[in-house]
Amino acid sequence: MDEKKINNKIMRIIVGDITERNTDAIVNAANNYLKHGGGVAGAIVRKGGYIIQEESDRIGFVPTGSAAITSAGSLKTKYVIHAVGPKWGEGDEENKLKSAVLSSLRKAEEYQLKSISFPAISSGIYGCPKSMVAKILVTTVAEYLKSQSTSLETIEFCLFDEETYRYFKQEFDKI
């Protein structure tokens, strides 16, 4: 685990299971239709319960680069923010990924949340390079914390494996 303070707020990177995080919200790397079958999304619904999928079905379509919010069922967290990142090769991936992160942060702000945990959005089955994902996520969050006041006190990246953690640590150390 590594932490930095930016404007008296904590930015953290850890290796772990995002479904076990006790933050106010966790971010799900979602698809446009919020069908939570595999990867992070599948794990969230398996652990949190089908209510998350039912609420997602009521939301319906979410454009790439946007986010939606549901309850968290029986997870430790209160909310799941479903961020739709880009698929590698569709074009403009960096801007779409940055937009997904900012949309998630705005959604957390709207609900006056104090803490949020992000996975490495788009780096799994969506195929975006982990190095690019780490750079976009870390720099976007750091800029967000530097540029405005926010209800968020802790923003963390909960990473699934050591390889992904190393990419995030490289970017984290540049801040």
Automatic annotation (TrEMBL):
SMART domains reported in the protein's UniProt record: A1pp (SM00506)
UniProt cross-references to PANTHER family, sorted A to Z: GANGLIOSIDE INDUCED DIFFERENTIATION ASSOCIATED PROTEIN 2-RELATED, MACRO DOMAIN-CONTAINING PROTEIN
Entry protein name: Conserved protein
Domain Macro: 1-175
Organism, scientific name: Thermodesulfovibrio yellowstonii (strain ATCC 51303 / DSM 11347 / YP87)
